[in-house]
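Example S7 (structure tokens).
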């Protein structure tokens, strides 16, 4: 395209260009509102939550009388004060809103205090008398398995016969692979504002990825129909899965306080409260057995994925399902058995977190590949390539890997782009010449399935109004949480309607305008709701086009950047507009043509049979790969990430700048998970690393000096919105390349560091170094 044209299409906001973030200016000016920025309604109550100080026990006494008498206190509420059902479990109904009879984890809400100020609420909280008879908590996956204590069924996906192969294969390994959890560390902590309405209903402003679930649960807890509960969400200050199901309790507790007092009620957790009470990424402890040949070809793989789900089910069964569906990652494994055990323990309920079990399932097979490569003395790249999916291959659960050839193409290109072979040689020389510093390089391919694994969640909706001045109001089912889904959706509306992006306003998500929406999750917010926006736009466009052709008879008309052009056969460049979009809309109004419409989309062709472990759960797959190089300081155990190369498949990106931003952020978040972010619990199940002072997330200083991200060219996706691919979660998994760079560096000491687990903190690395010295 000529530069004039490029400029025009950016102004227009066409899909495939990178216009400015639609709220960028307001964000930078500090004008964008998050929950705590909404102007405070009069008579507001501040709500604090008293939580369980112990992991397991029976409530012997809960006396709120003294607290109620404290100054400024409007209400002190317990399970007894819930007018509806004390139940907020989204998939399995095993979760209470307020503890009743017993407590199951440290941080579990027991009572809410509503007062004129936060200080008064906190002072009153100290006056609540809570006596708990402590019981011994179950904290580990192994204890839970011993007691057969699960939050859902143990599941299996199987193909071929692993036992037959194990009994007669050239090489065999077995072992355990562990990863710890991860705190979401969204900047905006869990927050909710509940406002009673004059008709007996209630409106909630909640920091949630899942307005529909907030509406359902508040309706259940308050015992009122769903049409009495309105949920309005403008944007979140980050979420990463932490607000997919876990914004619910806080919204319900604010709603309960508002309902019982008739006054607006605001909850905003402090960072420490949030870290203590809310669930995190699932820790996994996975047992594997693998049979392979001398070239590194995997002949049979058996993996038992045991996840630590915490005290209640939350979304853990779905997380485990996604882990199982990613247990083979990018490899074609003929004989495979995947077992999933969702272990119930007395920790905060683990929940959705970017990747949703995918990273854990992939970490297991990638670790196995590394061990195979080390055992055979092969380059881990070659072992991976030997097993890689090819065109037409079928996943263990029966779905064909569409465009499966792309993963190999990406992997090969990344090998040369990152200078894999040369770097490995340079590293070997470096490690020979350096006693106290060792370098390592790691590579990880990623295949990630797009769609919610629960098929019914794969739907999106939208509502579009065009006003008589040509400006457009778009409501859609996704939640903006910093991923810029609003920018992308505005581009989709602008492209489809042929108006400049500046004419599009994206509204808050509101259950009165879009109903029964799915959580903005599974990387699918833009796909599902973008399709719905396109659907609504096309309906209105159809009516407008009919009018144009009535006013200006011709073959066809095209809508571009605020103008309507005539199209005649054979012409590709449009000039001399017939009419502006604005004038056309005014004419349509006087002709009494509907300028509004609702849009809907349901992902076609997906299904999955859980009992058989078979089906076609994903619409398509996202592919990519990462290479990372590190230096490990043997005196301190500290790792420095020197470089990262990422090659990622977006197909036709709707907004390349946004996608690259998502890859940067996801990768660095993954690096945090595998290196420094450590959740430490004391022996009774209380989180010790429960504040930013003790929990280390990556900072600007952890970004590698050499950081290359490239979008792979020539990848197709006929099924995504505007032929794009989802972006949110897959690149998180690239962080695992850093872990394998560390194990590579440590292997240079003589043995493969089998016991090293995620996160590879300096302490753990140092232990590996010391063990090697002792040998
Ligand atoms: N949430 C969910 C998700 O309910 N089902 C999923 O498959 C999923 N995948 C990723 C993230 N959130
Ligand atoms: Mo998520 S892990 O809320 O897509």
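Recovered sequence:
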């Amino acid at each position: 395209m000529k530069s004039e044209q490029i400029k025009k299409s950016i102004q227009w906001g066409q899909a495939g260009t990178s216009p400015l973030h639609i709220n960028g200016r307001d964000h930078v000016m500090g004008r964008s509102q998050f929950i705590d920025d909404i102007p405070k309604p009069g008579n507001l109550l501040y709500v604090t939550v008293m939580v369980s100080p112990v992991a397991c026990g029976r409530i012997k006494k809960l006396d709120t009388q003294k607290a109620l008498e404290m100054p400024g206190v409007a209400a002190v509420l317990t399970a007894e004060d819930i007018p509806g059902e004390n139940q907020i479990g989204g998939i399995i109904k095993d979760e209470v809103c307020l503890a009743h009879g017993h407590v199951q984890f440290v941080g579990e809400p027991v009572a809410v205090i509503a007062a004129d100020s936060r200080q008064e609420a906190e002072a009153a909280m100290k006056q609540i008398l809570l006596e708990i008879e402590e019981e011994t908590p179950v904290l580990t996956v192994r204890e839970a398995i011993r007691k057969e204590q699960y939050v859902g069924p143990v599941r299996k996906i199987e193909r071929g016969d692993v036992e037959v192969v194990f009994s007669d294969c050239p090489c065999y390994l077995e072992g355990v692979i562990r990863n710890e959890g991860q705190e979401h560390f969204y900047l905006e902590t869990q927050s909710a504002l509940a406002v009673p309405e004059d008709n007996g209903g209630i409106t909630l402003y909640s920091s949630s990825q899942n307005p529909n679930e907030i509406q359902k649960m508040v309706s259940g807890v308050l015992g009122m129909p769903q049409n009495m509960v309105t949920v309005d969400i403008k944007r979140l200050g980050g979420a990463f899965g932490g607000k997919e199901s876990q914004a619910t309790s806080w919204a319900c507790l604010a709603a309960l306080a508002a309902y019982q007092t008739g006054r607006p009620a605001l909850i905003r957790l402090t960072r420490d409260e949030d870290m203590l009470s809310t669930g995190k990424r699932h820790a996994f402890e996975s047992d594997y057995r693998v049979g392979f040949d001398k070239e590194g070809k995997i002949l049979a793989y058996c993996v038992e994925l045991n996840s630590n789900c915490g005290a209640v089910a939350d979304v853990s069964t779905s997380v485990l399902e996604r882990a199982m569906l990613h247990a083979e990652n990018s490899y074609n494994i003929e004989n495979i058995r995947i077992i999933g055990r969702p272990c119930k323990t007395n920790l905060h309920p683990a929940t959705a977190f970017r990747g949703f079990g995918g990273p854990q399932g992939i970490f297991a097979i990638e670790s196995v590949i590394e061990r195979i490569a080390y055992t055979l003395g092969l380059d881990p790249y070659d072992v991976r390539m030997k097993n890689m999916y090819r065109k037409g291959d079928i996943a263990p659960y029966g779905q064909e890997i569409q465009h499966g050839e792309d993963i190999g193409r990406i992997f090969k290109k990344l090998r040369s782009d990152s200078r894999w072979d040369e770097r490995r040689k340079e590293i070997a020389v470096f490690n020979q010449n350096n006693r106290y510093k060792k370098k390592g390089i790691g590579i990880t391919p990623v295949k990630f399935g797009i769609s919610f694994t629960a098929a019914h969640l794969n739907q999106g909706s939208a509502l579009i109004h065009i006003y008589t001045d040509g400006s457009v109001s778009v409501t859609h089912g996704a939640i903006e949480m910093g991923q810029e889904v609003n920018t992308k959706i505005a581009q989709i509306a602008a492209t489809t309607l042929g108006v400049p992006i500046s004419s599009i306003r994206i509204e808050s998500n509101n259950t009165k305008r879009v109903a029964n929406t799915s959580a903005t999750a599974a990387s699918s917010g833009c796909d599902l709701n973008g399709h719905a926006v396109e659907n609504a736009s096309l309906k209105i466009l159809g009516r407008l086009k009919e009018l144009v052709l009535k006013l200006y008879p011709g073959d066809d008309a095209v809508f571009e950047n605020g103008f309507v052009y005539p199209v005649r056969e054979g012409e590709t460049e449009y000039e001399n507009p017939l009419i502006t979009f604005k004038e056309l809309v005014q004419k349509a109004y006087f002709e009494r043509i509907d300028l509004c419409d609702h849009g809907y989309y349901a992902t076609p062709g997906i299904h999955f049979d859980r009992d058989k472990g078979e089906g076609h759960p994903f619409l398509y797959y996202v592919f990519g790969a990462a290479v990372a190089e590190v230096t490990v300081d043997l005196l301190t155990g500290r790792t420095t990430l020197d470089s990262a190369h990422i090659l990622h498949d977006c197909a036709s990106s709707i907004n390349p700048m946004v996608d690259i931003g998502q890859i940067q952020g996801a990768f660095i978040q993954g690096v945090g998970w595998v290196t420094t972010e450590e959740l430490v619990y004391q022996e009774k199940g209380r989180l010790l690393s429960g504040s930013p002072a003790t929990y280390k997330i990556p900072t600007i200083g952890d970004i590698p000096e050499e950081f290359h991200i490239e979008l792979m060219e020539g990848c197709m996706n006929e099924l995504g919105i505007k032929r794009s691919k989802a972006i949110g979660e897959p690149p998180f998994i690239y962080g695992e390349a850093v872990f394998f760079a560390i194990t590579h560096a440590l292997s240079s000491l003589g043995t493969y560091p089998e016991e090293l687990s995620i996160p590879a903190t300096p302490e753990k690395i140092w232990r590996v170094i010391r063990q090697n010295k002792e040998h």
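Notes on this example. The domain at 412-453+619-775 is CATH 3.30.365.10 (Aldehyde Oxidoreductase; domain 4).
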